[in-house]
Amino acid sequence: MQCVRAWRSLNYLCRVAHHRAWKRTQSHTTAARLDLSGIYPPIATPFTAKEDVDYQKLEENLQKYAKIPFKGLVVQGSNGEYPYLTVEERVEVVRTVKQSLPAGRLLIAGSGCESTRATIQLTQKMAAAGADAVLVVTPCFYKGKMDSRALIHHFTKLADSSPVPVVLYSVPANTGLELPLDAVVELSQHPNILGVKDSGGDITRIGLIVHKTKAQDFQVLAGSAGFLMAAYCVGAIGGVCALANVLGQELCELERLCVSGRWEEARVLQQRLIEPNAAVTRKLGVPALKQAMEWFGFHGGSCRSPLQPLTEAESQQLRRDFSSNGWL
Amino acid sequence: MQCVRAWRSLNYLCRVAHHRAWKRTQSHTTAARLDLSGIYPPIATPFTAKEDVDYQKLEENLQKYAKIPFKGLVVQGSNGEYPYLTVEERVEVVRTVKQSLPAGRLLIAGSGCESTRATIQLTQKMAAAGADAVLVVTPCFYKGKMDSRALIHHFTKLADSSPVPVVLYSVPANTGLELPLDAVVELSQHPNILGVKDSGGDITRIGLIVHKTKAQDFQVLAGSAGFLMAAYCVGAIGGVCALANVLGQELCELERLCVSGRWEEARVLQQRLIEPNAAVTRKLGVPALKQAMEWFGFHGGSCRSPLQPLTEAESQQLRRDFSSNGWL
Amino acid sequence: MQCVRAWRSLNYLCRVAHHRAWKRTQSHTTAARLDLSGIYPPIATPFTAKEDVDYQKLEENLQKYAKIPFKGLVVQGSNGEYPYLTVEERVEVVRTVKQSLPAGRLLIAGSGCESTRATIQLTQKMAAAGADAVLVVTPCFYKGKMDSRALIHHFTKLADSSPVPVVLYSVPANTGLELPLDAVVELSQHPNILGVKDSGGDITRIGLIVHKTKAQDFQVLAGSAGFLMAAYCVGAIGGVCALANVLGQELCELERLCVSGRWEEARVLQQRLIEPNAAVTRKLGVPALKQAMEWFGFHGGSCRSPLQPLTEAESQQLRRDFSSNGWL
Amino acid sequence: MQCVRAWRSLNYLCRVAHHRAWKRTQSHTTAARLDLSGIYPPIATPFTAKEDVDYQKLEENLQKYAKIPFKGLVVQGSNGEYPYLTVEERVEVVRTVKQSLPAGRLLIAGSGCESTRATIQLTQKMAAAGADAVLVVTPCFYKGKMDSRALIHHFTKLADSSPVPVVLYSVPANTGLELPLDAVVELSQHPNILGVKDSGGDITRIGLIVHKTKAQDFQVLAGSAGFLMAAYCVGAIGGVCALANVLGQELCELERLCVSGRWEEARVLQQRLIEPNAAVTRKLGVPALKQAMEWFGFHGGSCRSPLQPLTEAESQQLRRDFSSNGWL
């Protein structure tokens, strides 16, 4: 029996290898796909005391980020408070970032809205403002109806019309729903859908996405620093990590260790990043991210209401999560 | 012991009665509060084949609703697909409804946005367009940070500046969060906050809200027809029910039975409404509501994408849920 | 159209009435069903300092309960810490209660286990020890596999072999699953299944259970005091309420008010019971129930480990939840 | 600033290294800890047609498992249907396994019960029956009260009295609760608590457990094959995997690849195991595990009721999940 099973495994592996070779040929005949591999901070949006976008502070942050070996920037991921910006502000922030961006760096703009038509319109504006690709969150208000059928329809319509490639975005902590695996697999076959940012952190699912899309040259990005190393381990090619707004150099170092197979060193570094990451995301959210940015020399400042500043106790907790891991 | 307990109960009841009498005096000296009691359909928004708002069909629906003894209309509750409308469309739909509304009926407009500033701005536009009150959903994208502190801040800022009274709106099936009880109780003391629409359906919580706000003349509206009778039973004063778009006359009849204490008849009618209600809300959502509207002589039509039309199987299920209860 | 709809409603009501009359005739020809209507405390199990069952204190509690107009007692509902008792203890406690029970009162014994075979065996022992009926919780460890098919099979096998009638028991706060509605409806047709205790508190579901089983003379019991009045309102016929261990007289009074249609008075009393009830169930659990029992003249005492005594802060919270409603 | 931060990191790493060296010295002076590293099948319990334990088929399975390079066997993990066995059966199965176990292999017996006293008693019986260690699931019925305080008390009492070392067991899919991280960290300091089996699959949490217990020589086992490679990557030392009942050789191969740093090969193998693993756990459960065992030459057979056999459609789904990955 063992023998039969070995033969089946071999047979399976040959089929897969053959399919991948064929795919590679195919894609060579079409345009080269954008290579997303690397680390991206989903940049925060600084505000003035009156809660207006502070473009000057934004530019000062951008100058600092330019010195860190990021692959690019994500503008208006969840940490950019995009649901609190008007459409005009969303586009203007992207335009501002584009002007400061060093050559060779990617600008990925969040353009997700609840309706398909609004998402298509904003995507076009983002492309016109200089986005190299768009990151599109799942619509979520009617979550009971956002099944694979609806989501495949939404993203396909968008990808059909988008002037720039699309990256899917699943962030259940904010949306209350996960882009279903079968929808990801189906959508991975669209020539204008490049990959997915998965912020759910279910490493089994991430491994399975990599596995089931391997014939499509589909790129998986970890959506949080807490599971970045594990995601690389199972086949992800980069990360969009809130914590990169604060410890960007360190996350690029973690990337380098993973990519070069130095897993022992990677593990030590990864472990020290879990608590700081949890603090600025799941535990204390965007206000904590912005507070930590201040401590590390960036402009964070306060959030738009209804997001509230940290309480004193929360601020101390945040400090402990950095200091107990040797970062402060 | 039994005796001591009876005395304590009596003592408690006297204190409460005294407090309520005092409160009533107080509120008489200020402006009379808007009386919300009654049934409201949260009206659907009809679209053309190209997904534009179909104002003509909207008006035809409004003429039919005018013949049903509703207390008023809710415009841009969840069933109005408001997250799929632009700000301009949201205001224009309210303006259109206002023009057709019979005298004496209330227009309650949904004006909730994610940020406090956008909510304040839209509220002012809604008031200018003719809304008698606004219904304001909890912001929800950063759900981990939408605790009582943030939500009390949000609704207080809004109520402070709103030209019309505010009704709180908790709809966990869409937002993934419930407006916490302590926040409701605190906010009930704001003179410009009239009441709450609770769509969660937790009857224990609804009873407790009534109990803990009884000194404030705070008005509780059931957010769905499935628990309308039970809500009246524990002290609610009306309902905003998706099903009222379809079976409006029957829901007004249920109201009449509850208000006049004819509970046996009410129960028979209530029970026949549970399955149709579940079908057009939780189970099959807005597309089913709009399909059922067509069957009952209203304009429903299709939804904006990404909401998809019902499948054939879903449509049959919907029909069964109405016909097995004697409505079709 | 209105006319056609009225005719359909009438037609529906006639069919239902006819069916019920026929059913009543049928059941008259078989044995009379046990009438469960009324209030039951799911009694707590007192322990000695060494965590052995304290049969003497149990009997002292029973003597006090005998003076309260309960319909009967539930022995080994969730509040009886039954998962912490051995099979022998479970049976011995039932035997003890039976000996003290006044004539005419029902003894309903919890006999649910994870496996069908263990449940059948324990049910037979409970019947032999004097139980008039058994209350059988849904198995729950393999919750992913406890679908309607499995649960219908489980309860049918049990009811087929049980010497006493069976009451279904759905308590999602403890089991993490709800007995599905379609399973309840299917099981309601079994001649040896009398009713259901529903502790989930979803009043829409409770109303629907009453509606969809009305042809079966199926009896629905509210599983908690927080929604007792609302449950009566939609058609329940009694309640098994943890709080009846503490405020039994008051819950029997609430029953009387509901049954006699004195809804206004009922509402006042119901509202004062919600917070004390939440405190001894959802919020602070069995240790709080036992603490409150001590305050009201019963033997509560401590729980078996791993249930821990209340902290000082929890104890104060518990006291506030009773005193702020006039009970202490 | 970069410089200061580098210094802080260095300082942190030195402190940690020093602490670990000191700890190692300490543990050398006390008894050597049991080394758990490796792969374990949580063996299934075969039943006869009458649902009695089939000891003969059990032994035939054991003989086959003896040829696979497992570190040992887990007897009465969740896949052993232990909640459906009597205490006597639980002990007898362990005794039977002990008799067939090759020298040098570990027997880890599940001895968790709801109450602390029952868990202590069963642990003693398991040790007497030959268990080298016990695997103890979190009590879960009163989940609202199973906070860190209760669970730390439970496991500490147990570990204080247990004649064999204790492995903690967190399996939220069955219990509806996760052993809190702070409780794991606190309990890791108990000299008789060796490690934890974590079946939740949250890789960020697993990495953090490794990180925060590294001073304690605490051993983390992955509780499922779906995230085995990722768990090794972040510092786990083995796995207890349902799928090892079926594809034991392959899981031992995956272990070998991970331990020897051959991550590329590991990834290919890991990816092919995700769907078969999901099928026999989360998706289709123990009945599917037993069905797959039959296909691969082991005795699976049917489950105790209420677990039902697979439907024909489920069986085909199961087959597809194996065959599409090249295993059938």
TrEMBL record, chains A, B, C, D:
GO BP field: glyoxylate catabolic process
Positions annotated as active site in the UniProt record: Y169 (proton donor/acceptor), K197 (schiff-base intermediate with substrate)
Tagged with keyword Aminoacyl-tRNA synthetase: no
InterPro entries assigned: Aldolase_TIM, DapA-like, Schiff_base-form_aldolases_AS
Keywords annotated in UniProt: Lyase, Schiff base
Enzyme Commission code(s) on record: 4.1.3.16
Enzyme class: lyase
Molecular function (Gene Ontology), one example: (R,S)-4-hydroxy-2-oxoglutarate aldolase activity
Keyword Lyase: yes
A family per Pfam: DHDPS
Catalytic activity as recorded in UniProt: (4R)-4-hydroxy-2-oxoglutarate = glyoxylate + pyruvate; (4S)-4-hydroxy-2-oxoglutarate = glyoxylate + pyruvate
GO cellular component, one term: mitochondrion
Residues holding pyruvate: V240
Quaternary state and interactors: Homotetramer.
Assigned protein family: Belongs to the DapA family.
PANTHER family: 4-HYDROXY-2-OXOGLUTARATE ALDOLASE, MITOCHONDRIAL, DIHYDRODIPICOLINATE SYNTHASE
Purpose: Catalyzes the final step in the metabolic pathway of hydroxyproline.
Protein name listed in UniProt: 4-hydroxy-2-oxoglutarate aldolase, mitochondrial
Organism: Astatotilapia calliptera
Source species taxonomy: Eukaryota, Metazoa, Chordata, Craniata, Vertebrata
Originating gene: HOGA1
